[in-house]
User: Fold these one by one.
Assistant:
Number 1:
Amino acid sequence: MKNTSPLTTPLPQKVLQVSADLRFAGLVGFWMQLVLGVISTVTVLFASSSFIDQTNTANTAGNEFGVFCAVCGLIALGIGIYFSWRYLAIAKLLRNPEANRRPNKADTIRMIRLGLMVNLIGMLLTIIGAEAIVGLVLAKSLANPPGQLNLDPNKLVNSIDLLVIQANTHTIAAHFGGIVASLLLLNRITR
């Protein structure tokens, strides 16, 4: 006769499916956000090093707010990466045969919603930074009439401006990936 205690009953199919969904979304979200986050961080560090260089301050005037928002977006992205990693940990916990050691549905949904909010806030901050930089680049380019050579460094679009735009774009894409993963998880778990 088989001795089955209520604590070690076989895992329900729904729990296995939720665990698989959390694992998949956690892996995709983690690696996508990590790769884009590293690229963005290196780009922002390179761009912000030009602000420290006092010889190039005229060329980067006005970029400080955009870089500040990019850094805030990267900090939020770091937190979002943690939440993706947390999804992997929850998926592993759900496969625990002891029912009392598994996280409950409400806690799992709360964790996913918190990760979603972090990515939404990070995306908002990064979009604000991108808008600031794009507005600055547009103002610089409009200050140069077609056919005239303007040698004023404050009115020239430079590579640092474009690097900050690229870093913000990568960060926005990373946050978008985290948002999509969280929304898919909420959709799958709450069904």
Note: The chain has a mean pLDDT of 83.
Number 2:
Amino acid sequence: MKRAILLMLALSLTLAVPALAQDDAPVKGDKAFKTLDANGDGKVTKDEFMAAAQKRAAARWEKLDPTGKGFVTKEDLEGVRAKAREKAQARKAKKDAPAQ
């Protein structure tokens, strides 16, 4: 069971990261450590790290399979990537727009 979960996690991250990287602002530095350190003891255990990775993978899976059908097709992935590109283009256009 753990092996299947880890395989799904690796697969979802491999497929989803390029498509969704623009949607999720990276958590860096102290904030990242605090996010991983679930019990606040100043240490990140393997269990805490894996739980955070699984939670993030589950959130990404929800974006890939919003209807909850339990699988993702190539077309689904292409749709997610297209949406991510549209959002990135909209952000760029907003950023490049002249200030009023």
Note: Confidence is low (pLDDT under 50) at residues 16-23.
Number 3:
Amino acid sequence: MKAMTLTEYGPDAAFVETQMPRPTATPGHVVLRVKATSVNTIDMMIKDMGSDLPLSPALPAVLGMDFAGVIEELGDGVTGFSVGDEVYGCAGGLADLQGALAEFMLADSRLIARKPQSLSMREAAALPLVGITAWEALHRARVDADQTVLVQGGAGGVGHIAVQLAHHLGAHVSATGTGAEQMRVIKGFGARPIDFKTAKIDDYVAEHTGGKGFDVVFDTVGGPNMINSFGAAALNAHVATTVALSEIDLSPAHFKGLSLHVVFMLLPMLHDVNRAAHGEILNRLADLVDGGAVKPLLDDHRFALDQVGDAYARLKSGQALGKVVVEL
């Protein structure tokens, strides 16, 4: 089978077209023909940082965590799926798990689900990692109807799904971004847009929460921005983040009694712990998508498998609006 591999890591490392053996199904796993795979920030970090990240695969490496495709072979013990099923998931591209930048992929059946019927393969491949991450963050932060929720980075990959999920749960959702296009996207997904470059925290907290602060803040930006999230949170509020790889002063969180949740959705893949939970989330996301409550936002640039380097460059440029997807 054809695969795009890395033989070295680093910002200048190039993907190389390689012929590899087609995987065969093992117990509890399926072999699927990959139709599309999306590029996530963590994929880009692995490519650039390599061994500096403990989750990077050994070289030569086939990256690509998200995918949509068609099942071609079932391993022993797999139930609930049949050959020919259209599925999606996040099941490889790190540690010892081969990724989706290949014609075929071996995937743990607990990490996949039938793709939403209303989505194309390209659209479905954009959803798994960001959808599971947003779902886990809102669940851990106990988002409920009539709460005030702030999503930091509401036009981003995880953020735009979180906005839609929080809106579906009945929360009053606000989201930060910048520029007219991001403001349009955020508003279109049911949130009140806040331009972080022009709006002051005290002003939008007063306008959107009556000065009390938000019941839940989901920060997909992280790092120094966490201080802004603490500032926007209400007393005893929940703050969730996907980016906690930094040293910050927790004093503001202490004096507000905040609950801080760090979401790292790759743990089931890395440690083979509770993988079935991801399959269940994907099933529930598919129902929401087909019911019209959630829709992934895709960047309008399209890439084929042999253009994966360009796809990574597109994400790294910061110019993409929506998920970058590679089609096979």
Note: The chain has eleven helices and 15 strands.
